[in-house]
Amino acid sequence: MQLTDDEIREILIKQKKRKRRQQRMRRRITLLFIVILIIGAAVTVLVMHSRGNGVGILPAKGVIFIDPGHGGSDPGSASDGRNEKDDNLVFAIAVKKALARQGFRVIMSRTGDEDVERARRGELANESGAQLMVSFHRNKSNGKGQGVEVFIPSDSSRESQLLGMSVFDALISCGFKERSIRTGTLESEKEDYEELAAAEMPCCLVEVGFIDNKDDNKLFDDNLRTNAKAVATAINDTFTELYAPEEAEKAEESAEQ
Ligand SMILES: [Zn+2]
After folding, report:
1. Is the model's pLDDT at 65 over the cut of 80?
2. Mind listing the domains of the chain with CATH numbers?
3. How far is the CA of 162 from the centre of ligand 1 (A)?
4. Mean pLDDT throughout 149-176?
5. Is the pLDDT of residue 210 over 80?
6. Other Cβ atoms within 10 Å of 103 Cβ, number
7. pTM for this model (two decimals)
8. Which residues of 81-99 are buried (b: 16+ CB within 10 A; e: fewer)?
9. 128 and 96 in contact (C-beta within 8 Å)?
10. How far is the CA of 212 from the centre of ligand 1 (A)?
11. What is the 152 CA–ligand 1 centroid distance (Å)?
């Protein structure tokens, strides 16, 4: 068969068009692939940041050390089959999650039912580079006591006082009764609990209600997440006040407007 010049031209034009279509399709696929990659990377960054595990690309706001009291062979106080070490861990994990959501990297002295020496907890806080440390405990007084008690180191640094008072106020606003904010230990105003003595950053030890008081246990169990969030916000506010005062001022100004 003999092709005319016109027919040859037509064929060539068709071929060119087909090639262009294929190129367009390839470009579209490449673009779609790039978009998917970007979205995937963004989601990964957001997830890692929201988990606050420090692996994310976004930097953490700061480092907070959370210490669930007792653990392992040391159950702490006990009442009606309820062990303080378990309550402390449950509460600490809830606070950790709330802090992570607020952008902090959170390090814990223990994440399971483990033995950790009291002084070692303070040392771990120092090693973690934490800027604040809070120890969680629960009180006991054979059914006679109720409410929140906070211990701060006997040097009564302004920073530890601020931290202790903020956490105390947060728990009172959650419905716990006011008991006391005190320096030192239960036995002595001049001696410190070993973990607080060893810690080099502002710190406090909080007794989140009494383990042998029904009302305190009800508040503790029923409002776990709300209580933890309030405590995390108190820690966040203290952090901002101590380490980012310009931000604290800005927040105050915008609240006034
Ligand atoms: Zn305790």
Report:
1. yes
2. 16-59 (no CATH), 63-249 (3.40.630.40)
3. 22
4. 96
5. yes
6. 15
7. 0.77
8. ebbbbbbbbebbbbbbbbb
9. no
10. 13
11. 15
